[in-house]
């Protein structure tokens, strides 16, 4: 049995993560184990380290975090036919989800157990560092776009289906979630209008956005309302602080599907770097009350996205089994944003958290293993 090592969060708010041995876990029948070649950091990782218990409250310490990993298959469960030892893959790790609540299924260690249908093979030319940027951004975008209880867009395919004639608003196109939302929506036959800082205009256009607006401009909401004037909106996905209220105002003036899928919960701006429970709870309750009345009056439906709900509802298979392998193999999907590698070894994961927390522009913080 291989010996495993993990970057452990040993207690609430413990800093730094502690690198020490971890059990090696064998896969159940629909699972595989991979030896990680690279892992990526998401805001939820440092938020969980900082918050002390509000997020994923079922987690007991010590615990291993991490959702994004890429590496080589070392073991497969009895029912797995898609993979064999030696295959190069990328996968969404689910250890923090309540249903799993198990460090063996998390990314920040040498060996991770993954669900067969939440894993895709990657081309031989793609590095693990490039592939590791995908999982949570891709999954969150897919939950918001394709789930029946969210925007319920038609599924992506390679080549894309006939254009639907509808246009999606993605607020925050240079985020990891936004980079994937733009590409997935394009692959599903939707035109995309997005927002980003001017330095990322070319970046989001390369991903497939047809128009892009600076979210820091004072006139951005009016500019977007004008851009949608002769279009049928397919709904909106709000990503980033302030995005939900702006998208609400835009949807109010558009014709089409008035649905807002929210990746970022509308917290006070500037966003708190740590969760301050009374302030966050007060904002949560008051925003919901105001939003309920505003949405009723405007005929807009809103829903928060949980980037892991696709595991159980069929969208996970659509993305990781049916779409991504072909899209990557044919060069029809870009693993974006580009990785920013902070170092090699589990010891660098804490440095990755600290860097991600300071904020990155169109880059994903990655650690090589
Ligand atoms: N609900 C879920 O399950 C879920 C899952 C993953 C992430 N999220 C949330 O989604 C958000 C993005 O996460 P991520 O990992 O994709 O982030 P990320 O890749 O770290 O995002 C960095 C980008 O954010 C953009 N940005 C910053 N402030 C913005 C604003 N006010 N409006 C639009 N864009 C803004 C910047 O764009 P420019 O450089 O162009 O300025 C920057 O490039 C976070 O709030 C995160 O907590 C939610």
UniProtKB/TrEMBL annotation:
Pfam family, one: ADH_N
Family: Belongs to the zinc-containing alcohol dehydrogenase family.
Species whose genome carries this gene: Lepraria neglecta
Molecular functions (GO terms): oxidoreductase activity, acting on NAD(P)H
Keywords of this entry: Oxidoreductase
UniProt protein name: Enoyl reductase (ER) domain-containing protein
Family matches, as CDD domains: enoyl_reductase_like
Domain Enoyl reductase (ER): 14-290
Stored PANTHER family: HYPOTHETICAL OXIDOREDUCTASE (EUROFUNG), ZINC-TYPE ALCOHOL DEHYDROGENASE-LIKE PROTEIN C2E1P3.01
């Amino acid at each position: 049995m291989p010996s495993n090592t993990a970057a452990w969060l040993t207690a609430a708010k413990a800093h730094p993560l502690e690198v020490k041995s971890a059990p090696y876990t064998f896969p159940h029948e629909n699972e595989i184990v991979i030896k990680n070649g690279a892992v990526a950091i998401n805001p939820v990782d440092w938020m969980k380290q900082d918050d002390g218990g509000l997020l994923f409250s079922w987690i007991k310490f010590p615990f291993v975090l991490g959702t994004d990993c890429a590496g080589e298959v070392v073991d497969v469960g009895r029912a797995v036919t898609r993979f064999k030892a030696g295959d190069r893959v990328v996968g969404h790790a689910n250890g923090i989800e309540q249903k799993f609540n198990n460090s063996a299924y998390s990314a920040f260690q040498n060996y991770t157990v993954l669900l067969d249908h939440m894993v895709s093979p990657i081309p031989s030319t793609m590095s693990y560092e490039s592939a590791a940027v995908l999982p949570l951004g891709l999954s969150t975008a897919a939950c918001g776009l394709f789930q029946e209880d969210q925007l319920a867009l038609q599924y992506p395919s390679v080549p894309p289906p006939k254009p639907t004639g509808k246009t999606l608003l993605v607020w925050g196109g240079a985020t990891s979630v936004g980079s994937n939302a733009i590409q997935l929506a394009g692959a599903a036959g939707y035109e995309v209008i997005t927002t980003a800082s001017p330095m990322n205009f070319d970046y989001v256009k390369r991903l497939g956005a047809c128009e892009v607006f600076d979210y820091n401009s004072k006139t951005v909401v009016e500019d977007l309302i004008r851009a949608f004037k002769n279009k049928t909106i397919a709904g909106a996905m709000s990503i980033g602080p302030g995005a939900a209220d702006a998208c609400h105002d835009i949807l109010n003036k558009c014709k089409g599907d008035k649905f807002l899928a929210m990746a970022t919960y509308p917290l006070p701006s500037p966003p708190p770097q740590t969760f301050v429970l009374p302030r966050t709870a007060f904002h949560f309750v008051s925003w919901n009350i105001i939003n309920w009345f505003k949405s009723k009056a405007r005929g807009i439906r809103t829903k928060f996205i949980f980037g892991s709900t696709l595991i159980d509802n069929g969208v996970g298979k659509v993305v990781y089994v049916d779409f991504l392998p072909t899209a990557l193999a044919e060069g029809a999907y870009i693993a974006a944003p580009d990785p920013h590698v902070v170092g090699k070894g589990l010891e660098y994961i804490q440095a990755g958290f600290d860097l991600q927390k300071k904020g990155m522009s169109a880059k994903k913080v990655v650690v090589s293993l």
